Amino acid sequence: MAGNEWINGYLEAILDSGASAIEENKQVSQVNVRDRGHFNPTKYFVEEVVTGVDETDLHRTWIKVVATRNTRERSSRLENMCWRIWHLTRKKKQLEWEDFQRLANRRWEREQGRRDVTEDMSEDLSEGEKGDFLGEAIAIDSPRKRFQRNFSNLEVWSDNNKEKKLYIILVSLHGLVRGENMELGRDSDTGGQIKYVVELARALARMPGVYRVDLFTRQVSSPEVDWSYGEPTEMLTAGPEDADAADVGESSGAYIIRIPFGPRDKYLNKELLWPHIQEFVDGALAHILNMSKVLGEQIGGGQPIWPYVIHGHYADAGDSAALLSGALNVPMVLTGHSLGRNKLEQLLKQGRQSKEDINSTYKIMRRIEAEELSLDAAELVITSTKQEIDEQWGLYDGFDVKLEKVLRARARRGVNCHGRYMPRMVVIPPGMDFSNVMVQEDNDVDGELTGITNTDGASPKAIPPIWSEVMRFLTNPHKPMILALSRPDPKKNITTLLKAFGECRPLRDLANLTLIMGNRDDIDELSAGNAGVLTTVLKLVDKYDLYGQVAFPKHHKQNDVPEIYRLAAKTKGVFVNPALVEPFGLTLIEAAAHGLPMVATKNGGPVDIHRALNNGLLVDPHDQQAIANALLKLVSEKNLWQECQKNGWKNIHLFSWPEHCRTYLTRVAACRMRHPMWQTDTPADELAEEESLNDSLKDVQDMSLRLSVDGDKTSLNESIDLAAAGGDPELQDQVKRVLSKMKKPETGSQDSERDTEVVDKVPSKYPMLRRRRRLIVIALDCYDNDGAPEKKMIQIVRDVFSAIKLDPQIARSSGFALSTAMSISELTAFLKSGNIKANEFDALICSSGSEVYYPGTYTEEEGKLSPDPDYASHIDYRWGSDGIKKTIWKLMNTPEPSEEKSAHSSSPIEEDVNSSNSHCLSYLIKDISKAKKVDGMRQKLRMRGLRCHLMYCRNSTRMQVIPLLASRAQALRYLFVRWRLNVANMFVILGETGDTDYEELISGTHKTLIMKGVVENGPEELLRTTGSYIRDDIVPGESPLVAYTSEGATTEEIVNALRQVSKSGA
């Protein structure tokens, strides 16, 4: 056929140009558009059109085609559009294939992880128990009674807990949060989550046993938003309404606490907040420590009142809550609200964007990593539905439904899990406030509606304005109203509902249909998806001639929604939610509270709601006839309608805020409760009081001085302290008086050397950190190709000491710390080689943050430094060194599926015993080419239930694995919590690169000084795999808290940079 010649031309062009090259995203060979002396349009389109196709242009092209009268031009435009469709189809198929491969690899990894866990943990069991264990993952799924029995063993929260006086912290970072006149819908970040967390804070503060609730969010002082978002504190409620006056304290109640982080004068979308997360954590930590002290004075008998739980909402707050929980060692709870992996899967299935484009737009990989980190730290994950657990959280490395049940069963039996852990997932539906919901009276409905529609000239009865707005669409507003309330999103399936209504004549005769589809001024101004739905709705109304039977008002306010429900209930109507998938279905609960039976999708949360309320029917959202039949059944059978209404009212209390909070507190109370328990019985505190020497030394410490008793020359750090005091005669007199109080030796033969020996061996009661106002932290990762520290680091340390000495203001009350991947033995040997004493430093953070030492404080009898025992117990949480050691060895020696196996390949790692300790597994990297990326290894460890920090360090010559709560950055926060040395008063000195934990040390409220030209090499290429999040998602591009020095900086330049950054942070 002549009309098909252009199709044949396309096929010939595909063959000539090489379709395989297009499919494989290879460069298509240049096509000569002038072939045999004439223009070849098909080859031109292969070259110019196919490679630049954009799905959004198709509709525009079609409109132009329809409007074109010239046959030849019309044909060309059709060719253009067909090529676009062809390429789009091929692009989608390619993305589908990539998606299939990715999911297949993930399933393989998951199964391999389960096999490894089974093999490792079955070694503990007898032969009889092994059989039970291997089938445990399946067997534990079936009996529901087992879950019910466990829950019944929990002590339900009641008024008996009234004396507990708990301090609870909620975190919700993005959007605009305030207690009254919430601007819901102002943007995509200010939605239902904001309302939820504010109401949760209020409801928890009213529960017995809860003294104070703090809701942390971001402080925004910007002219583009209301001034109220810049207020640091906002009270939500003063506490329980029925509480005695004695129970309501000065600081009790619920409060919004706004922490400044990021640019102070800008309101940022949630995708732009990621680089500033650590700054929020430090600011929140300062507030928590202050509030814990205040509450301790009010209700704790002088002892700090630590948070009972820290609850993060959404990925950004989950990341923050994980760090806060780790710094304070208190339980963490997580609510995801919406999940990154689920969103990524949906966007990839649409085929419109590549993974790289999605990540660039939504920072989706940074969000997913935050959610994974939250799973690492969380004791409890709260979901709205069981579907969220199985189908959404099941996509994450850090949660495996089967493995979680196995580990839980083993824990109940007291069997060792080798450090493996999965967070507990529980379904707690969101609460609602039903205080304003009134039970409907049936006898006044006709009167109220007639008041609007009367024609006898009488004054109409006062009714809500939204009723008038709805009923102006309807010929007979007395008929039962079928109400749908949702955004005009294709996923909400509104068009299928409208078709079901339009094609069912009995339903049209019995009822009206009201569609509340958000707010709009002009359909053309909406997004393509929303505009498409609304346009289709208008066309269907016209197609089925539904004028006078369907209402679709353009505007409504938030406080109009209850009135809309009330109107539908007065007409004996039905609420319908036909969404393809509904994560929860809060509107179903709202409707039930107002007396409306429901027809809802059987996919997602409505299943759980229906099970609890039993107030309607579930349908297949794809089955148009089933939707119509269910609506007709409820509208026509009055007895069924009344039964559903009564069931909804009878069971609605299950979704009230008091019920939600009671279940919430019951579940949280079942978590492993922990909080800081500082040891005070260390050997440093056992010095006899009668010697009075310790008191004298303590007086010296109060003045932040270190003195050389025997008159020898002072050390570097001591000279700084003396310089700080040198200009103060009164302070020098105090020092002399302190020295004169020290006991003289009884025999004349004992000289000053004996005094020096006594002073050196007697540990002070507390580290000097306790008296410091500033801390200079040197965290330079200078190593040679063998991983040994470079000698230039000694000179840099001396330069830093000298630089601080130049400014008495900085030198006064300043201390020093050294943060390194070296073990304590390696570090002290290195310092000794440079004639620098260990006690020049107030703290030594060793082995990548797995140990903290205080020279001169925690020492053994032979003078050997001892690690801080409190820090050791602090980071021991979820640390399973045996399981991790075995798994690391297996993973590092197992080639990837894409790698070739060699019969003679040797292990790429070797255990580094000298650098290892009880909380650090250190390995030598023998073959860097076989080293696996940090995020890839972390993924595999999470799949096996192992939670830890893995990093490459010392110029890529070592790999170290430390506990989840340990890191060099978190060690600084520990010093803040333990010794009250605010992180904001710390100065961290770094190079331009460093170990793979380097990025964590840049962000935060501390001041950062980056010295150029000092650290030349770092293992950054081993940090992330292709397609992961990038450095800009962790580290802010520009920050007033970061300063730089030029290469080969002098002491004057160093001190000037410190002065500069100190002023910026003031």
Automatic annotation (TrEMBL):
GO MF annotation terms: sucrose-phosphate synthase activity
Domain Sucrose synthase first GT-B: 167-434
Region (Disordered): 895-915
Pathway: Glycan biosynthesis; sucrose biosynthesis; sucrose from D-fructose 6-phosphate and UDP-alpha-D-glucose: step 1/2
Residue intervals of the Glycosyl transferase family domain: 476-648
Keyword Glycosyltransferase carried by entry: yes
This protein's UniProt keywords: Glycosyltransferase, Transferase
Gene3D superfamilies (alphabetical): 3.90.1070.10, Glycogen Phosphorylase B, HAD superfamily/HAD-like
Enzyme kind, highest EC tier: transferase
Residue spans of biased composition, Polar residues class: 904-915
EC numbers on record: 2.4.1.14
Entry superkingdom: Eukaryota
Domain Sucrose phosphatase-like: 810-1001
Catalyzed reaction equations: beta-D-fructose 6-phosphate + UDP-alpha-D-glucose = sucrose 6(F)-phosphate + UDP + H(+)
Gene Ontology process terms (BP): sucrose biosynthetic process
Role description: Plays a role in photosynthetic sucrose synthesis by catalyzing the rate-limiting step of sucrose biosynthesis from UDP-glucose and fructose- 6-phosphate. Involved in the regulation of carbon partitioning in the leaves of plants. May regulate the synthesis of sucrose and therefore play a major role as a limiting factor in the export of photoassimilates out of the leaf. Plays a role for sucrose availability that is essential for plant growth and fiber elongation.
Alphabetized NCBIfam families for the sequence: sucrsPsyn_pln
Assembly and binders: Homodimer or homotetramer.
Family: Belongs to the glycosyltransferase 1 family.
Protein's UniProt name: Sucrose-phosphate synthase
Organism whose genome encodes this protein: Escallonia herrerae
